[in-house]
Amino acid sequence: MKLSGSNVRDMIKSAKPIQLVAVVALLAAGWFAWQSWQSSAAEALANEASRVRAEVAGQVEELAQAAIDRLEATRTRIALTTALKRKELKTAEAVVTDGWDGIEAVEWHEPGLNDAYADAEAFGYGKLGILEAALRENASQAAVVRDSGSAKLGLAAPVLEDGRVVTLLYVRLPLEALTAPLAAASLPGGYLALRQGRYTVSQNGDEALAGVAEVGAIGVDGTALRVVAAAPMNQVGLGAITNALLATLCLLVALALFAMPRLRGLRIERRVDEVADAQNEPTFAELQARSELGAPPAPASAAVAVSAAAAPAAKRAFLERSIFRAYDIRGVVGKTLDANTARLIGQAIGTVMHLQDARTIVVGRDGRLSSPEMAAALIEGLRQSGREVIDIGAAPTPLVYFGAYQLRAGSCVSVTGSHNPPDYNGFKIVIEGETLAGAAIENLYERIAENKLHTADAPGPLSKRDITDDYIQRIAGDIQIERKLKVVVDCGSGIAGLIAPRLMEAIGAEVEPLFCEVDGTFPHHHPDPSDPVNLKDLINVVQRVDADLGLAFDGDG
Questions:
Q1: Largest CA distance in the chain
Q2: pLDDT digits 0-9 by tens, 245-285
Q3: In this predicted model, which residue has the larger pLDDT, 302 or 115?
Q4: Which residues face 490 on adjacent strands?
Q5: Which residue in 468, 542, 473 sits closest to 510, CA to CA?
Q6: Does 414 participate in catalysis according to the annotation?
Q7: Phi, psi of 146 (to 5 degrees)
Q8: Hey, what's the torsion of the CAs at 117, 121, 127, 131, to 10 degrees?
Q9: Which of 119, 265, 360, 528 qualifies as a FRET site for 45, CA 20 to 30 Å off?
Q10: Could you tell me which of 540, 419, 405 has the C-alpha nearest to residue 474?
Q11: Residue of 480, 557, 478, 547 whose CA lies nearest to 518
Q12: How many CB atoms lie within 10 A of CB 29?
Protein backbone atom coordinates (compact mmCIF):
# COMPACT_ATOMS: atom_id res chain seq x y z
CA MET A 1 0.00 0.00 0.00
CA LYS A 2 1.33 3.47 -0.85
CA LEU A 3 1.02 6.44 1.56
CA SER A 4 -0.18 9.39 -0.46
CA GLY A 5 0.98 13.01 -0.03
CA SER A 6 -2.56 14.12 0.93
CA ASN A 7 -2.54 11.73 3.87
CA VAL A 8 0.75 13.18 5.05
CA ARG A 9 -0.60 16.75 4.83
CA ASP A 10 -3.73 15.81 6.77
CA MET A 11 -1.67 14.34 9.58
CA ILE A 12 0.56 17.43 9.79
CA LYS A 13 -2.45 19.78 9.83
CA SER A 14 -3.76 18.05 12.94
CA ALA A 15 -0.79 19.43 14.91
CA LYS A 16 -1.84 23.11 14.64
CA PRO A 17 -4.29 23.25 17.62
CA ILE A 18 -1.52 21.80 19.80
CA GLN A 19 0.72 24.70 18.82
CA LEU A 20 -1.95 27.16 19.99
CA VAL A 21 -2.03 25.44 23.38
CA ALA A 22 1.78 25.59 23.45
CA VAL A 23 1.65 29.37 22.93
CA VAL A 24 -0.78 29.70 25.86
CA ALA A 25 1.53 27.58 28.04
CA LEU A 26 4.50 29.71 27.01
CA LEU A 27 2.63 32.89 27.93
CA ALA A 28 1.68 31.35 31.27
CA ALA A 29 5.36 30.48 31.87
CA GLY A 30 6.30 34.10 31.23
CA TRP A 31 3.58 35.37 33.57
CA PHE A 32 4.60 33.04 36.41
CA ALA A 33 8.28 33.94 35.84
CA TRP A 34 7.41 37.64 36.18
CA GLN A 35 5.39 36.93 39.31
CA SER A 36 8.33 34.94 40.70
CA TRP A 37 10.59 37.91 40.14
CA GLN A 38 8.06 40.20 41.82
CA SER A 39 7.73 37.84 44.79
CA SER A 40 11.47 37.43 45.06
CA ALA A 41 11.94 41.19 45.07
CA ALA A 42 9.25 41.59 47.76
CA GLU A 43 10.77 38.84 49.91
CA ALA A 44 14.24 40.34 49.49
CA LEU A 45 12.94 43.74 50.60
CA ALA A 46 11.18 42.15 53.60
CA ASN A 47 14.42 40.44 54.60
CA GLU A 48 16.29 43.71 54.14
CA ALA A 49 13.70 45.48 56.32
CA SER A 50 14.29 42.92 59.09
CA ARG A 51 18.05 43.33 58.80
CA VAL A 52 17.95 47.13 58.80
CA ARG A 53 15.48 47.16 61.73
CA ALA A 54 17.78 44.95 63.81
CA GLU A 55 20.86 46.96 62.85
CA VAL A 56 19.27 50.33 63.63
CA ALA A 57 17.80 49.05 66.91
CA GLY A 58 21.26 47.94 67.98
CA GLN A 59 22.77 51.31 67.05
CA VAL A 60 20.02 53.30 68.83
CA GLU A 61 20.43 51.06 71.87
CA GLU A 62 24.17 51.75 71.95
CA LEU A 63 23.61 55.52 71.75
CA ALA A 64 20.92 55.49 74.45
CA GLN A 65 22.97 53.27 76.73
CA ALA A 66 26.08 55.40 76.21
CA ALA A 67 24.14 58.50 77.32
CA ILE A 68 22.69 56.67 80.33
CA ASP A 69 26.11 55.31 81.33
CA ARG A 70 27.62 58.79 80.99
CA LEU A 71 25.01 60.34 83.27
CA GLU A 72 25.25 57.42 85.71
CA ALA A 73 29.00 57.97 86.01
CA THR A 74 28.59 61.74 86.35
CA ARG A 75 26.02 61.69 89.17
CA THR A 76 28.42 59.87 91.50
CA ARG A 77 31.43 62.14 90.91
CA ILE A 78 32.81 63.66 94.10
CA ALA A 79 33.36 66.96 92.28
CA LEU A 80 29.63 67.15 91.54
CA THR A 81 28.43 66.38 95.06
CA THR A 82 31.01 68.80 96.51
CA ALA A 83 29.84 71.62 94.22
CA LEU A 84 26.20 70.96 95.10
CA LYS A 85 26.97 70.89 98.80
CA ARG A 86 28.53 74.33 98.43
CA LYS A 87 25.55 75.44 96.28
CA GLU A 88 27.93 76.24 93.41
CA LEU A 89 25.52 75.36 90.61
CA LYS A 90 27.70 76.79 87.84
CA THR A 91 30.56 74.58 88.94
CA ALA A 92 28.21 71.59 89.19
CA GLU A 93 26.93 72.27 85.67
CA ALA A 94 30.51 72.42 84.38
CA VAL A 95 31.18 69.00 85.93
CA VAL A 96 28.20 67.59 84.01
CA THR A 97 29.03 69.17 80.65
CA ASP A 98 32.79 68.53 80.83
CA GLY A 99 33.69 66.58 77.66
CA TRP A 100 30.02 65.89 76.84
CA ASP A 101 29.21 67.44 73.47
CA GLY A 102 25.73 68.44 72.42
CA ILE A 103 24.14 69.17 75.81
CA GLU A 104 21.44 71.83 75.39
CA ALA A 105 20.51 72.33 79.04
CA VAL A 106 21.31 71.15 82.56
CA GLU A 107 18.64 71.56 85.26
CA TRP A 108 18.42 70.83 89.00
CA HIS A 109 15.11 69.91 90.65
CA GLU A 110 14.32 69.34 94.30
CA PRO A 111 13.37 65.70 95.07
CA GLY A 112 9.78 66.58 95.99
CA LEU A 113 9.16 68.01 92.49
CA ASN A 114 6.64 70.43 94.04
CA ASP A 115 7.18 73.10 91.37
CA ALA A 116 6.68 70.51 88.63
CA TYR A 117 3.45 69.19 90.16
CA ALA A 118 2.12 72.71 90.65
CA ASP A 119 1.74 73.11 86.87
CA ALA A 120 2.54 69.75 85.30
CA GLU A 121 1.28 70.77 81.87
CA ALA A 122 3.59 73.76 81.64
CA PHE A 123 6.48 71.80 83.14
CA GLY A 124 5.96 68.91 80.71
CA TYR A 125 4.42 65.53 81.49
CA GLY A 126 7.22 63.63 79.78
CA LYS A 127 9.88 65.57 81.64
CA LEU A 128 8.08 65.03 84.92
CA GLY A 129 7.68 61.33 84.16
CA ILE A 130 11.39 60.75 83.55
CA LEU A 131 12.31 62.60 86.76
CA GLU A 132 9.82 60.44 88.68
CA ALA A 133 11.30 57.27 87.11
CA ALA A 134 14.84 58.31 88.07
CA LEU A 135 13.72 58.95 91.63
CA ARG A 136 11.77 55.69 91.80
CA GLU A 137 14.51 53.50 90.30
CA ASN A 138 17.41 55.40 91.93
CA ALA A 139 19.17 55.20 88.58
CA SER A 140 19.71 57.21 85.40
CA GLN A 141 16.79 57.15 82.97
CA ALA A 142 16.38 58.17 79.31
CA ALA A 143 13.29 58.97 77.26
CA VAL A 144 12.05 61.14 74.44
CA VAL A 145 10.23 64.12 76.01
CA ARG A 146 8.69 67.36 74.79
CA ASP A 147 10.88 70.16 76.08
CA SER A 148 11.34 73.74 74.86
CA GLY A 149 8.58 73.27 72.32
CA SER A 150 9.89 70.17 70.53
CA ALA A 151 10.87 66.56 71.04
CA LYS A 152 14.20 66.06 72.81
CA LEU A 153 16.22 63.28 74.40
CA GLY A 154 15.79 63.75 78.13
CA LEU A 155 18.03 62.19 80.78
CA ALA A 156 17.41 62.26 84.52
CA ALA A 157 19.28 60.93 87.56
CA PRO A 158 19.14 61.35 91.36
CA VAL A 159 22.25 62.78 93.01
CA LEU A 160 22.91 61.24 96.42
CA GLU A 161 24.74 62.43 99.50
CA ASP A 162 25.15 59.94 102.35
CA GLY A 163 22.48 57.76 100.73
CA ARG A 164 19.98 60.61 100.56
CA VAL A 165 18.70 62.26 97.39
CA VAL A 166 19.76 65.91 97.51
CA THR A 167 18.67 66.89 94.00
CA LEU A 168 17.44 65.52 90.69
CA LEU A 169 19.70 66.17 87.70
CA TYR A 170 18.05 66.67 84.29
CA VAL A 171 20.01 66.87 81.02
CA ARG A 172 18.51 67.79 77.64
CA LEU A 173 20.08 66.59 74.41
CA PRO A 174 19.00 67.13 70.79
CA LEU A 175 16.91 64.34 69.34
CA GLU A 176 19.60 63.73 66.71
CA ALA A 177 21.71 62.14 69.47
CA LEU A 178 19.29 59.23 69.25
CA THR A 179 17.89 59.33 65.72
CA ALA A 180 21.12 59.57 63.71
CA PRO A 181 21.09 55.80 62.86
CA LEU A 182 17.61 56.16 61.28
CA ALA A 183 18.70 59.14 59.19
CA ALA A 184 21.72 57.17 57.95
CA ALA A 185 19.80 53.93 57.26
CA SER A 186 18.66 53.09 53.74
CA LEU A 187 15.57 51.00 53.01
CA PRO A 188 14.40 51.84 49.46
CA GLY A 189 10.69 51.20 49.02
CA GLY A 190 10.23 50.39 52.72
CA TYR A 191 9.47 52.21 55.97
CA LEU A 192 11.57 52.67 59.12
CA ALA A 193 10.68 54.48 62.33
CA LEU A 194 11.63 54.99 65.97
CA ARG A 195 8.61 55.01 68.28
CA GLN A 196 7.86 55.54 71.95
CA GLY A 197 4.40 54.39 72.94
CA ARG A 198 2.06 55.78 70.28
CA TYR A 199 4.41 58.64 69.40
CA THR A 200 6.59 58.35 66.29
CA VAL A 201 9.89 59.96 67.21
CA SER A 202 11.46 59.75 63.76
CA GLN A 203 10.57 58.06 60.49
CA ASN A 204 11.66 57.75 56.89
CA GLY A 205 10.44 55.92 53.80
CA ASP A 206 6.92 55.18 52.57
CA GLU A 207 4.60 56.39 55.34
CA ALA A 208 1.74 54.42 53.77
CA LEU A 209 3.35 51.37 55.42
CA ALA A 210 3.35 52.93 58.90
CA GLY A 211 0.21 51.04 59.95
CA VAL A 212 1.76 47.58 59.46
CA ALA A 213 5.25 48.38 60.75
CA GLU A 214 4.65 47.21 64.34
CA VAL A 215 4.99 43.54 63.36
CA GLY A 216 8.44 42.46 64.48
CA ALA A 217 9.17 45.68 66.40
CA ILE A 218 12.45 45.59 68.36
CA GLY A 219 12.56 47.27 71.77
CA VAL A 220 15.52 49.42 72.78
CA ASP A 221 16.71 48.03 76.10
CA GLY A 222 16.79 50.50 78.97
CA THR A 223 14.13 52.74 77.38
CA ALA A 224 10.50 52.67 76.24
CA LEU A 225 11.62 53.10 72.63
CA ARG A 226 11.28 50.58 69.82
CA VAL A 227 12.38 50.41 66.19
CA VAL A 228 9.78 49.34 63.61
CA ALA A 229 10.08 48.62 59.90
CA ALA A 230 7.91 47.41 57.02
CA ALA A 231 8.25 46.47 53.38
CA PRO A 232 5.54 46.44 50.67
CA MET A 233 3.38 43.34 50.89
CA ASN A 234 3.56 40.73 48.14
CA GLN A 235 0.12 40.93 46.51
CA VAL A 236 0.49 37.78 44.40
CA GLY A 237 -0.23 35.32 47.17
CA LEU A 238 2.30 32.75 45.91
CA GLY A 239 5.93 32.76 46.92
CA ALA A 240 8.89 33.21 44.61
CA ILE A 241 9.74 29.48 44.66
CA THR A 242 6.15 28.40 43.90
CA ASN A 243 5.89 30.84 41.00
CA ALA A 244 9.28 29.73 39.67
CA LEU A 245 8.20 26.08 39.76
CA LEU A 246 4.95 26.90 37.95
CA ALA A 247 6.90 28.90 35.35
CA THR A 248 9.26 25.97 34.79
CA LEU A 249 6.37 23.53 34.51
CA CYS A 250 4.54 25.72 31.98
CA LEU A 251 7.76 26.16 29.98
CA LEU A 252 8.31 22.39 29.85
CA VAL A 253 4.71 21.87 28.73
CA ALA A 254 5.12 24.52 26.03
CA LEU A 255 8.35 22.99 24.76
CA ALA A 256 6.77 19.54 24.70
CA LEU A 257 3.74 20.82 22.80
CA PHE A 258 5.91 22.71 20.30
CA ALA A 259 7.96 19.54 19.76
CA MET A 260 4.96 17.26 19.20
CA PRO A 261 4.24 18.29 15.54
CA ARG A 262 7.89 17.85 14.66
CA LEU A 263 7.98 14.46 16.35
CA ARG A 264 4.75 13.51 14.56
CA GLY A 265 6.22 14.73 11.24
CA LEU A 266 9.29 12.59 11.83
CA ARG A 267 7.10 9.59 12.52
CA ILE A 268 5.14 10.30 9.29
CA GLU A 269 8.35 10.63 7.29
CA ARG A 270 9.57 7.37 8.77
CA ARG A 271 6.31 5.65 7.80
CA VAL A 272 6.57 7.07 4.27
CA ASP A 273 10.13 5.79 3.99
CA GLU A 274 9.13 2.39 5.37
CA VAL A 275 6.30 2.06 2.83
CA ALA A 276 8.56 3.18 0.00
CA ASP A 277 11.24 0.71 1.06
CA ALA A 278 8.67 -2.05 1.24
CA GLN A 279 7.40 -1.21 -2.22
CA ASN A 280 10.94 -1.18 -3.70
CA GLU A 281 12.19 -4.25 -1.79
CA PRO A 282 13.37 -7.09 -4.15
CA THR A 283 11.55 -10.40 -4.11
CA PHE A 284 12.96 -13.55 -2.54
CA ALA A 285 13.68 -14.96 -5.98
CA GLU A 286 15.57 -11.78 -6.91
CA LEU A 287 17.66 -12.01 -3.78
CA GLN A 288 18.49 -15.65 -4.52
CA ALA A 289 19.48 -14.71 -7.99
CA ARG A 290 21.77 -11.94 -6.74
CA SER A 291 23.15 -14.14 -3.91
CA GLU A 292 22.36 -11.34 -1.51
CA LEU A 293 20.87 -13.54 1.18
CA GLY A 294 22.89 -13.61 4.35
CA ALA A 295 22.68 -13.51 8.07
CA PRO A 296 21.07 -10.37 9.41
CA PRO A 297 23.55 -7.91 10.82
CA ALA A 298 24.01 -7.94 14.56
CA PRO A 299 22.47 -4.90 16.24
CA ALA A 300 25.01 -2.31 17.27
CA SER A 301 25.38 -1.85 21.01
CA ALA A 302 26.33 1.45 22.63
CA ALA A 303 27.83 1.75 26.07
CA VAL A 304 26.66 4.79 27.95
CA ALA A 305 28.85 5.87 30.83
CA VAL A 306 26.97 7.57 33.63
CA SER A 307 28.93 9.50 36.21
CA ALA A 308 27.21 10.35 39.43
CA ALA A 309 27.75 13.90 40.54
CA ALA A 310 29.28 14.20 43.95
CA ALA A 311 26.89 15.44 46.59
CA PRO A 312 27.59 19.02 47.53
CA ALA A 313 29.38 19.51 50.84
CA ALA A 314 27.24 20.81 53.68
CA LYS A 315 27.65 24.54 54.15
CA ARG A 316 28.54 26.00 57.51
CA ALA A 317 25.84 28.36 58.81
CA PHE A 318 26.60 32.05 58.26
CA LEU A 319 27.56 33.82 61.48
CA GLU A 320 25.58 37.06 61.64
CA ARG A 321 27.55 39.69 63.59
CA SER A 322 24.48 41.86 64.28
CA ILE A 323 23.05 39.30 66.74
CA PHE A 324 25.93 39.97 69.17
CA ARG A 325 24.45 42.99 70.89
CA ALA A 326 25.40 45.26 73.79
CA TYR A 327 23.82 43.18 76.58
CA ASP A 328 22.83 39.86 75.04
CA ILE A 329 22.78 37.77 71.87
CA ARG A 330 19.54 38.04 69.93
CA GLY A 331 18.40 37.17 66.40
CA VAL A 332 15.62 35.93 64.13
CA VAL A 333 15.43 32.13 64.13
CA GLY A 334 15.97 30.71 60.67
CA LYS A 335 17.45 33.96 59.37
CA THR A 336 20.19 35.32 61.64
CA LEU A 337 20.11 32.55 64.26
CA ASP A 338 19.96 28.76 63.92
CA ALA A 339 20.89 25.62 65.88
CA ASN A 340 24.42 25.53 64.50
CA THR A 341 25.01 29.12 65.59
CA ALA A 342 23.61 28.25 69.05
CA ARG A 343 26.03 25.33 69.28
CA LEU A 344 28.98 27.56 68.37
CA ILE A 345 27.85 30.15 70.94
CA GLY A 346 27.71 27.39 73.58
CA GLN A 347 31.23 26.25 72.69
CA ALA A 348 32.47 29.87 72.81
CA ILE A 349 30.92 30.38 76.27
CA GLY A 350 32.47 27.09 77.38
CA THR A 351 35.85 28.24 76.06
CA VAL A 352 35.70 31.44 78.15
CA MET A 353 34.75 29.33 81.19
CA HIS A 354 37.63 26.95 80.44
CA LEU A 355 40.07 29.87 80.47
CA GLN A 356 38.65 30.97 83.84
CA ASP A 357 38.74 27.41 85.19
CA ALA A 358 34.95 27.52 85.63
CA ARG A 359 33.37 24.07 85.50
CA THR A 360 29.57 24.17 85.89
CA ILE A 361 26.83 26.18 84.16
CA VAL A 362 23.03 26.28 84.50
CA VAL A 363 20.84 26.51 81.37
CA GLY A 364 17.15 27.45 81.28
CA ARG A 365 14.82 28.46 78.45
CA ASP A 366 11.64 30.45 77.87
CA GLY A 367 8.45 29.20 76.21
CA ARG A 368 9.15 30.12 72.59
CA LEU A 369 8.65 27.38 70.02
CA SER A 370 12.33 27.53 69.02
CA SER A 371 13.72 27.51 72.58
CA PRO A 372 13.99 23.69 73.06
CA GLU A 373 16.04 23.40 69.85
CA MET A 374 18.19 26.44 70.69
CA ALA A 375 18.78 25.21 74.26
CA ALA A 376 19.70 21.70 73.10
CA ALA A 377 22.22 23.08 70.58
CA LEU A 378 23.66 25.48 73.17
CA ILE A 379 24.08 22.62 75.67
CA GLU A 380 25.78 20.52 73.00
CA GLY A 381 28.33 23.29 72.45
CA LEU A 382 28.89 23.77 76.19
CA ARG A 383 29.48 20.06 76.69
CA GLN A 384 31.76 19.95 73.66
CA SER A 385 34.00 22.40 75.52
CA GLY A 386 34.00 20.09 78.54
CA ARG A 387 31.58 22.04 80.76
CA GLU A 388 29.21 20.36 83.20
CA VAL A 389 25.67 21.48 82.30
CA ILE A 390 22.68 21.55 84.66
CA ASP A 391 19.51 21.86 82.57
CA ILE A 392 16.63 23.35 84.61
CA GLY A 393 14.27 23.25 81.60
CA ALA A 394 11.55 25.84 81.03
CA ALA A 395 12.21 28.72 83.42
CA PRO A 396 11.93 32.54 83.58
CA THR A 397 15.24 34.38 83.43
CA PRO A 398 15.25 35.32 87.16
CA LEU A 399 14.88 31.61 88.01
CA VAL A 400 17.89 30.82 85.79
CA TYR A 401 19.95 33.45 87.64
CA PHE A 402 18.76 32.00 90.96
CA GLY A 403 19.82 28.55 89.73
CA ALA A 404 23.40 29.75 89.22
CA TYR A 405 23.46 30.69 92.91
CA GLN A 406 21.36 27.85 94.34
CA LEU A 407 23.24 25.11 92.50
CA ARG A 408 26.66 26.65 93.25
CA ALA A 409 27.41 26.95 89.54
CA GLY A 410 28.22 30.66 89.34
CA SER A 411 27.45 30.67 85.60
CA CYS A 412 24.21 30.43 83.63
CA VAL A 413 22.56 31.06 80.28
CA SER A 414 18.91 31.95 79.77
CA VAL A 415 17.71 31.01 76.28
CA THR A 416 15.12 33.70 75.62
CA GLY A 417 13.86 36.23 73.11
CA SER A 418 12.65 38.42 76.01
CA HIS A 419 9.97 40.91 74.87
CA ASN A 420 10.63 40.43 71.14
CA PRO A 421 8.27 38.82 68.55
CA PRO A 422 7.80 35.02 68.41
CA ASP A 423 10.39 34.45 65.67
CA TYR A 424 13.18 35.94 67.79
CA ASN A 425 15.37 34.12 70.28
CA GLY A 426 18.62 34.74 72.07
CA PHE A 427 20.88 34.23 75.05
CA LYS A 428 21.46 36.13 78.32
CA ILE A 429 24.79 35.03 79.75
CA VAL A 430 26.43 35.09 83.19
CA ILE A 431 29.95 33.67 83.72
CA GLU A 432 31.33 33.40 87.26
CA GLY A 433 28.82 35.94 88.56
CA GLU A 434 29.50 38.50 85.80
CA THR A 435 26.78 39.35 83.27
CA LEU A 436 28.37 39.43 79.83
CA ALA A 437 27.99 42.75 78.00
CA GLY A 438 29.81 44.99 75.55
CA ALA A 439 33.33 43.76 74.80
CA ALA A 440 32.65 40.39 76.46
CA ILE A 441 29.79 39.71 74.01
CA GLU A 442 31.98 40.87 71.12
CA ASN A 443 34.70 38.50 72.32
CA LEU A 444 32.34 35.54 71.82
CA TYR A 445 31.76 36.56 68.21
CA GLU A 446 35.49 36.93 67.56
CA ARG A 447 36.21 33.51 69.08
CA ILE A 448 33.69 31.86 66.80
CA ALA A 449 34.74 33.83 63.71
CA GLU A 450 38.43 33.01 64.29
CA ASN A 451 37.69 29.41 65.38
CA LYS A 452 39.41 29.91 68.74
CA LEU A 453 37.19 27.35 70.44
CA HIS A 454 38.20 24.81 73.05
CA THR A 455 37.23 21.19 72.41
CA ALA A 456 37.52 18.79 75.36
CA ASP A 457 38.71 15.20 75.08
CA ALA A 458 35.27 14.04 76.24
CA PRO A 459 31.87 15.80 76.46
CA GLY A 460 31.02 17.38 79.78
CA PRO A 461 28.32 15.74 81.96
CA LEU A 462 24.65 16.74 81.70
CA SER A 463 22.03 16.58 84.45
CA LYS A 464 18.47 17.91 84.84
CA ARG A 465 17.06 19.70 87.90
CA ASP A 466 13.78 21.37 88.85
CA ILE A 467 14.39 24.25 91.26
CA THR A 468 11.01 26.00 90.95
CA ASP A 469 9.90 25.04 94.48
CA ASP A 470 13.26 26.16 95.93
CA TYR A 471 12.83 29.55 94.24
CA ILE A 472 9.27 30.06 95.49
CA GLN A 473 10.15 28.94 99.03
CA ARG A 474 13.15 31.26 99.13
CA ILE A 475 11.08 34.32 98.18
CA ALA A 476 8.04 33.40 100.27
CA GLY A 477 10.38 32.88 103.24
CA ASP A 478 11.56 36.48 102.91
CA ILE A 479 8.33 38.22 101.87
CA GLN A 480 4.76 37.97 103.15
CA ILE A 481 2.28 40.76 102.43
CA GLU A 482 0.50 42.27 105.43
CA ARG A 483 -3.01 41.95 104.00
CA LYS A 484 -4.44 39.76 101.27
CA LEU A 485 -4.33 41.65 97.99
CA LYS A 486 -6.25 40.71 94.88
CA VAL A 487 -3.69 40.67 92.06
CA VAL A 488 -4.28 40.17 88.33
CA VAL A 489 -1.24 38.50 86.78
CA ASP A 490 -0.87 38.89 83.00
CA CYS A 491 1.95 36.64 81.77
CA GLY A 492 1.24 37.37 78.10
CA SER A 493 1.53 33.62 77.28
CA GLY A 494 5.21 33.86 78.28
CA ILE A 495 7.26 31.58 80.50
CA ALA A 496 6.34 33.55 83.64
CA GLY A 497 3.00 31.72 83.50
CA LEU A 498 4.72 28.65 85.00
CA ILE A 499 5.66 30.41 88.20
CA ALA A 500 4.25 33.93 88.68
CA PRO A 501 0.72 32.90 89.86
CA ARG A 502 2.17 30.33 92.30
CA LEU A 503 4.65 32.86 93.63
CA MET A 504 2.00 35.53 94.19
CA GLU A 505 -0.15 33.03 96.08
CA ALA A 506 2.85 31.90 98.13
CA ILE A 507 3.44 35.42 99.45
CA GLY A 508 -0.25 35.77 100.41
CA ALA A 509 -2.02 37.27 97.39
CA GLU A 510 -5.33 36.27 95.81
CA VAL A 511 -4.44 35.71 92.16
CA GLU A 512 -6.55 36.26 89.06
CA PRO A 513 -4.49 34.66 86.24
CA LEU A 514 -4.59 36.19 82.74
CA PHE A 515 -2.93 34.53 79.72
CA CYS A 516 -0.80 32.34 81.99
CA GLU A 517 -0.80 29.32 79.67
CA VAL A 518 2.63 29.24 78.03
CA ASP A 519 2.32 29.59 74.24
CA GLY A 520 5.35 30.55 72.16
CA THR A 521 3.16 32.12 69.46
CA PHE A 522 1.90 34.78 71.95
CA PRO A 523 -1.66 34.62 70.57
CA HIS A 524 -3.22 37.26 72.84
CA HIS A 525 -0.82 40.18 72.65
CA HIS A 526 2.85 41.01 72.15
CA PRO A 527 4.91 40.05 75.28
CA ASP A 528 6.08 43.64 75.87
CA PRO A 529 4.35 45.38 78.81
CA SER A 530 6.24 48.63 78.15
CA ASP A 531 3.80 49.28 75.30
CA PRO A 532 0.43 50.50 76.68
CA VAL A 533 -1.37 48.71 73.84
CA ASN A 534 -0.42 45.38 75.42
CA LEU A 535 -1.91 46.36 78.79
CA LYS A 536 -5.52 46.86 77.65
CA ASP A 537 -6.69 43.38 78.69
CA LEU A 538 -4.95 43.65 82.06
CA ILE A 539 -6.53 47.05 82.74
CA ASN A 540 -9.99 45.74 81.84
CA VAL A 541 -9.67 42.69 84.13
CA VAL A 542 -8.31 44.77 87.05
CA GLN A 543 -11.36 47.03 86.73
CA ARG A 544 -13.80 44.15 86.26
CA VAL A 545 -12.71 42.13 89.32
CA ASP A 546 -11.94 45.24 91.40
CA ALA A 547 -8.35 44.10 91.95
CA ASP A 548 -5.78 45.96 94.05
CA LEU A 549 -3.00 45.49 91.54
CA GLY A 550 -2.25 44.34 88.01
CA LEU A 551 1.14 42.86 87.10
CA ALA A 552 2.34 42.29 83.53
CA PHE A 553 5.39 40.22 82.59
CA ASP A 554 7.40 40.20 79.39
CA GLY A 555 8.35 37.06 77.44
CA ASP A 556 11.03 35.83 79.83
CA GLY A 557 9.50 36.99 83.10
A1: 139
A2: 776 887 787 677 666 665 555 554 455 444 444 444 444 44
A3: 115
A4: 514, 552
A5: 542
A6: no
A7: -90, 120
A8: 10
A9: 528
A10: 405
A11: 557
A12: 20
pLDDT of residue 192: 93
The runs of H, that is alpha helices, within 479-529 are 500-506
Helical ranges in 148-300 per DSSP H: 176-184, 240-280, 284-290
Helix (H) and strand (E) counts for the chain?
A: 17, 18
Q: How far is residue 76's CA from residue 157's CA, in Å, rounded to a whole number?
A: 10
Is residue 265 left, alpha or beta, with left meaning phi > 0 and alpha meaning psi from -120 to 50?
A: alpha
Residues of the chain with pLDDT > 70: what percent? 81
Hey, how many other C-beta atoms are within 10 angstroms of the C-beta on 211?
9
Q: 438-443 contacts: CB < 8 A, separation 24 or more? A: 438/326, 438/327, 440/352, 441/324, 441/325, 441/326, 441/327, 441/328, 441/329, 442/324, 443/352
Is residue 459 within 8 Å of 483, Cβ to Cβ? Answer: no
Phi, psi of 407 (to 5 degrees): -95, 10
pTM value > 0.70: no
pLDDT in tens, 118-159: 998 899 999 999 999 999 999 999 999 999 889 999 999 999
Q: Give the model's confidence band at 48: pLDDT under 50 very low, under 70 low, under 90 confident, else very high.
A: confident
CB 534 within 8 A of CB 540: no
Residue from 322, 418, 463, 493 carrying the catalytic annotation: 418
DSSP output for 307-359? -PPPPPPPPPPP--GGGB-SSSEEEEBTTTB-HHHHHHHHHHHHHHHHHTT--
Buried b (16+ CB within 10 A) or exposed e, 297-314: eeeeeeeeeeeeeeeeee
CB-based contact 491:389 (threshold 8 Å)? no
Helix (H, G, I), strand (E, B) or coil at 410: coil
Task: Give the contacts of 165 (CB within 8 A, at least 6 positions apart).
Answer: 111, 135, 138, 158, 159
DSSP β-bridge partners for residue 331: 425
* CA-to-CA dists, residue 551 to 8, 263, 459, 547, 555, angstroms: 87, 77, 42, 11, 13
SS3 labels along 545-557: CCCCEEEECCCCC
Instruction: For 408-442, give one letter per residue: b (16+ CB within 10 A) or e.
Output: ebbbbbbbbbbbbbbbbbbbbbbbeeeebeeeebe
Task: Give pLDDT tens digits for 471-524.
Answer: 999 999 999 998 889 999 999 999 999 999 999 999 999 999 999 999 999 999
Quick check: 270 and 8 in contact, CB under 8 A? no
Calpha distance 344→465 (Å, rounded): 24
